[in-house]
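We emphasize that the prediction below concerns an isolated chain of 243 residues; any contacts that depend on oligomerization or on bound cofactors are therefore not represented. The input was used exactly as deposited, without trimming of termini.
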Amino acid sequence: MARWVGGGQLDLKTRDGDKPPMGVMVKICGINSRDAADAALRAGTDFAGLVFFERSPRHLSLDQAAVLARLLRGRARVVALLVDPPDAAVDEVMAAISPDLIQLHGNESPARTAAIAARAARPVIKVLAVADAADVVRAHAYEDAADYLLFDAKSDASAARPGGWGAAFDWQLVSGRTFKRPFGLAGGLTPENVARAIQVSGAKFVDASSGVEDAPGRKSPEKIVAFVAAARNAPYTNIAGAA
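Result of the prediction step, given as a C-alpha coordinate string:
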Protein backbone atom coordinates (compact mmCIF):
# COMPACT_ATOMS: atom_id res chain seq x y z
CA MET A 1 0.00 0.00 0.00
CA ALA A 2 1.06 3.57 -0.58
CA ARG A 3 2.46 5.30 2.45
CA TRP A 4 3.33 8.78 3.64
CA VAL A 5 6.99 9.70 3.92
CA GLY A 6 8.91 12.75 5.03
CA GLY A 7 7.69 16.19 4.01
CA GLY A 8 4.14 15.02 3.50
CA GLN A 9 4.95 13.26 0.26
CA LEU A 10 3.06 10.19 -0.87
CA ASP A 11 5.22 7.17 -1.66
CA LEU A 12 3.48 5.37 -4.51
CA LYS A 13 5.97 2.51 -4.81
CA THR A 14 5.82 -1.01 -3.51
CA ARG A 15 8.66 -2.79 -1.75
CA ASP A 16 10.42 -3.64 -5.01
CA GLY A 17 10.46 0.06 -5.81
CA ASP A 18 9.16 0.01 -9.37
CA LYS A 19 5.48 -0.94 -9.34
CA PRO A 20 2.33 1.02 -8.43
CA PRO A 21 0.45 0.07 -5.27
CA MET A 22 -2.22 -2.61 -5.46
CA GLY A 23 -4.84 -0.22 -4.22
CA VAL A 24 -5.69 3.43 -3.81
CA MET A 25 -5.69 5.96 -1.02
CA VAL A 26 -9.08 7.10 0.25
CA LYS A 27 -10.29 10.52 1.36
CA ILE A 28 -13.58 11.26 3.11
CA CYS A 29 -14.33 14.95 2.71
CA GLY A 30 -16.76 17.24 4.48
CA ILE A 31 -16.41 15.64 7.89
CA ASN A 32 -18.40 17.86 10.23
CA SER A 33 -19.28 15.74 13.27
CA ARG A 34 -17.63 13.44 15.76
CA ASP A 35 -19.74 10.52 14.47
CA ALA A 36 -18.49 11.09 10.93
CA ALA A 37 -14.88 11.38 12.11
CA ASP A 38 -15.19 8.21 14.19
CA ALA A 39 -16.67 6.32 11.23
CA ALA A 40 -13.91 7.51 8.89
CA LEU A 41 -11.24 6.45 11.37
CA ARG A 42 -12.92 3.13 12.02
CA ALA A 43 -13.04 2.47 8.28
CA GLY A 44 -9.35 3.33 7.95
CA THR A 45 -9.53 6.35 5.67
CA ASP A 46 -6.20 7.90 4.71
CA PHE A 47 -7.40 11.52 4.42
CA ALA A 48 -10.09 13.40 6.34
CA GLY A 49 -11.30 16.63 4.76
CA LEU A 50 -12.53 19.65 6.73
CA VAL A 51 -14.40 22.27 4.68
CA PHE A 52 -13.97 26.02 5.11
CA PHE A 53 -16.49 27.49 2.68
CA GLU A 54 -19.56 29.21 4.08
CA ARG A 55 -21.89 28.29 1.21
CA SER A 56 -21.25 24.58 1.77
CA PRO A 57 -23.54 22.54 4.06
CA ARG A 58 -20.31 21.01 5.38
CA HIS A 59 -18.70 24.31 6.39
CA LEU A 60 -16.96 24.41 9.77
CA SER A 61 -16.02 27.24 12.04
CA LEU A 62 -12.39 27.31 13.12
CA ASP A 63 -13.39 26.18 16.61
CA GLN A 64 -15.42 23.23 15.29
CA ALA A 65 -12.59 22.24 12.98
CA ALA A 66 -10.03 22.39 15.76
CA VAL A 67 -12.02 19.85 17.81
CA LEU A 68 -12.27 17.45 14.88
CA ALA A 69 -8.63 17.93 13.90
CA ARG A 70 -7.53 16.91 17.38
CA LEU A 71 -9.62 13.76 17.09
CA LEU A 72 -8.22 12.90 13.66
CA ARG A 73 -4.59 13.88 14.22
CA GLY A 74 -2.14 11.02 13.80
CA ARG A 75 -4.85 8.61 12.64
CA ALA A 76 -5.70 10.18 9.29
CA ARG A 77 -4.18 13.01 7.29
CA VAL A 78 -6.14 16.18 7.99
CA VAL A 79 -6.96 18.15 4.83
CA ALA A 80 -8.23 21.74 4.93
CA LEU A 81 -10.45 22.54 1.94
CA LEU A 82 -10.38 26.20 0.90
CA VAL A 83 -11.92 28.05 -2.04
CA ASP A 84 -9.93 30.96 -3.51
CA PRO A 85 -8.64 31.87 -0.04
CA PRO A 86 -6.93 35.18 0.71
CA ASP A 87 -3.67 34.98 2.64
CA ALA A 88 -5.44 35.84 5.88
CA ALA A 89 -7.76 32.84 5.57
CA VAL A 90 -4.83 30.53 4.91
CA ASP A 91 -3.06 31.87 7.99
CA GLU A 92 -6.17 31.46 10.17
CA VAL A 93 -6.70 27.84 9.16
CA MET A 94 -3.04 26.98 9.63
CA ALA A 95 -3.04 28.53 13.11
CA ALA A 96 -6.30 26.87 14.14
CA ILE A 97 -5.84 23.29 12.94
CA SER A 98 -2.36 22.93 11.39
CA PRO A 99 -3.62 20.60 8.63
CA ASP A 100 -1.37 18.06 6.96
CA LEU A 101 -2.46 19.22 3.51
CA ILE A 102 -4.33 22.09 1.86
CA GLN A 103 -6.96 21.36 -0.79
CA LEU A 104 -7.75 24.21 -3.16
CA HIS A 105 -11.20 23.95 -4.74
CA GLY A 106 -11.57 27.29 -6.47
CA ASN A 107 -10.20 29.10 -9.49
CA GLU A 108 -6.68 29.39 -8.12
CA SER A 109 -4.11 29.87 -10.87
CA PRO A 110 -0.91 27.81 -10.93
CA ALA A 111 0.96 30.82 -9.52
CA ARG A 112 -1.56 31.30 -6.71
CA THR A 113 -1.52 27.58 -5.95
CA ALA A 114 2.26 27.64 -5.61
CA ALA A 115 2.09 30.76 -3.43
CA ILE A 116 -0.40 29.14 -1.03
CA ALA A 117 1.71 26.00 -0.85
CA ALA A 118 4.75 28.09 0.06
CA ARG A 119 2.85 30.20 2.57
CA ALA A 120 1.32 27.20 4.35
CA ALA A 121 4.44 25.04 3.98
CA ARG A 122 2.17 22.09 3.28
CA PRO A 123 1.51 19.83 0.29
CA VAL A 124 -1.37 21.07 -1.84
CA ILE A 125 -4.13 19.12 -3.59
CA LYS A 126 -5.43 21.19 -6.50
CA VAL A 127 -8.96 20.36 -7.59
CA LEU A 128 -9.65 20.69 -11.30
CA ALA A 129 -13.21 20.75 -12.63
CA VAL A 130 -13.76 18.45 -15.60
CA ALA A 131 -16.41 18.46 -18.31
CA ASP A 132 -14.35 17.58 -21.38
CA ALA A 133 -10.86 16.56 -22.50
CA ALA A 134 -9.61 20.15 -22.58
CA ASP A 135 -10.19 20.42 -18.83
CA VAL A 136 -7.96 17.39 -18.26
CA VAL A 137 -5.20 18.82 -20.43
CA ARG A 138 -5.34 22.02 -18.34
CA ALA A 139 -4.08 20.02 -15.36
CA HIS A 140 -0.56 19.97 -16.80
CA ALA A 141 -0.25 23.67 -15.98
CA TYR A 142 -0.47 22.76 -12.27
CA GLU A 143 2.10 19.97 -12.20
CA ASP A 144 4.84 22.19 -10.80
CA ALA A 145 2.53 24.14 -8.48
CA ALA A 146 0.57 21.40 -6.70
CA ASP A 147 1.63 18.14 -5.11
CA TYR A 148 -1.51 16.24 -6.11
CA LEU A 149 -4.20 16.76 -8.76
CA LEU A 150 -7.83 15.94 -8.04
CA PHE A 151 -10.32 15.74 -10.90
CA ASP A 152 -13.92 16.60 -10.00
CA ALA A 153 -17.09 17.12 -12.02
CA LYS A 154 -17.56 20.67 -13.27
CA SER A 155 -20.44 22.47 -11.56
CA ASP A 156 -23.12 24.37 -13.42
CA ALA A 157 -22.25 28.04 -13.92
CA SER A 158 -25.09 29.03 -11.58
CA ALA A 159 -24.01 26.68 -8.76
CA ALA A 160 -23.47 28.22 -5.34
CA ARG A 161 -20.40 26.09 -4.65
CA PRO A 162 -17.78 24.35 -6.79
CA GLY A 163 -18.30 20.78 -5.58
CA GLY A 164 -20.16 18.40 -3.32
CA TRP A 165 -23.18 18.02 -5.64
CA GLY A 166 -22.93 14.28 -6.22
CA ALA A 167 -22.33 14.69 -9.96
CA ALA A 168 -19.82 12.55 -11.85
CA PHE A 169 -17.90 13.18 -15.05
CA ASP A 170 -16.80 10.71 -17.72
CA TRP A 171 -13.98 8.80 -16.03
CA GLN A 172 -12.56 7.74 -19.38
CA LEU A 173 -11.40 11.33 -19.88
CA VAL A 174 -8.55 10.62 -17.45
CA SER A 175 -8.06 6.95 -18.30
CA GLY A 176 -4.53 6.30 -19.52
CA ARG A 177 -3.38 9.85 -18.78
CA THR A 178 -0.04 10.45 -17.13
CA PHE A 179 0.99 13.42 -15.03
CA LYS A 180 4.06 14.44 -13.07
CA ARG A 181 1.92 14.35 -9.92
CA PRO A 182 -0.37 11.62 -8.56
CA PHE A 183 -3.98 12.26 -9.52
CA GLY A 184 -7.21 11.46 -7.75
CA LEU A 185 -10.88 11.24 -8.61
CA ALA A 186 -13.89 12.95 -7.03
CA GLY A 187 -17.45 13.76 -8.01
CA GLY A 188 -20.41 11.45 -7.60
CA LEU A 189 -18.43 8.59 -6.08
CA THR A 190 -20.43 6.15 -3.95
CA PRO A 191 -19.85 2.74 -2.36
CA GLU A 192 -21.62 1.26 -5.39
CA ASN A 193 -19.52 2.84 -8.15
CA VAL A 194 -16.11 3.58 -6.65
CA ALA A 195 -14.53 0.27 -7.67
CA ARG A 196 -15.55 0.82 -11.29
CA ALA A 197 -14.32 4.42 -11.15
CA ILE A 198 -10.90 3.26 -9.97
CA GLN A 199 -10.65 0.65 -12.70
CA VAL A 200 -11.64 3.02 -15.49
CA SER A 201 -9.70 6.09 -14.36
CA GLY A 202 -6.51 4.62 -12.94
CA ALA A 203 -6.72 7.16 -10.10
CA LYS A 204 -4.19 6.95 -7.27
CA PHE A 205 -6.72 8.18 -4.70
CA VAL A 206 -10.47 8.73 -4.45
CA ASP A 207 -12.50 11.37 -2.62
CA ALA A 208 -16.11 11.09 -1.45
CA SER A 209 -18.40 13.61 0.22
CA SER A 210 -22.05 13.66 -0.84
CA GLY A 211 -21.79 10.00 -1.88
CA VAL A 212 -21.43 8.99 1.77
CA GLU A 213 -24.28 11.14 3.08
CA ASP A 214 -27.95 10.59 3.88
CA ALA A 215 -28.67 14.29 3.19
CA PRO A 216 -26.48 17.29 2.29
CA GLY A 217 -24.02 17.74 5.13
CA ARG A 218 -25.21 14.68 7.08
CA LYS A 219 -22.65 11.91 6.83
CA SER A 220 -23.72 8.26 7.03
CA PRO A 221 -21.31 6.16 9.10
CA GLU A 222 -22.51 3.05 7.28
CA LYS A 223 -21.84 4.57 3.84
CA ILE A 224 -18.41 5.80 4.93
CA VAL A 225 -17.40 2.30 6.02
CA ALA A 226 -18.84 0.77 2.85
CA PHE A 227 -17.08 3.31 0.61
CA VAL A 228 -13.65 2.75 2.13
CA ALA A 229 -14.09 -1.03 1.95
CA ALA A 230 -15.18 -0.89 -1.70
CA ALA A 231 -12.23 1.31 -2.65
CA ARG A 232 -9.76 -0.88 -0.77
CA ASN A 233 -11.05 -4.02 -2.48
CA ALA A 234 -11.06 -2.56 -5.99
CA PRO A 235 -8.44 -4.15 -8.25
CA TYR A 236 -5.92 -1.48 -9.24
CA THR A 237 -6.11 -2.09 -12.96
CA ASN A 238 -6.61 0.69 -15.48
CA ILE A 239 -8.92 -0.61 -18.17
CA ALA A 240 -8.76 2.27 -20.64
CA GLY A 241 -11.51 2.19 -23.18
CA ALA A 242 -13.92 0.23 -20.97
CA ALA A 243 -17.55 1.21 -21.32
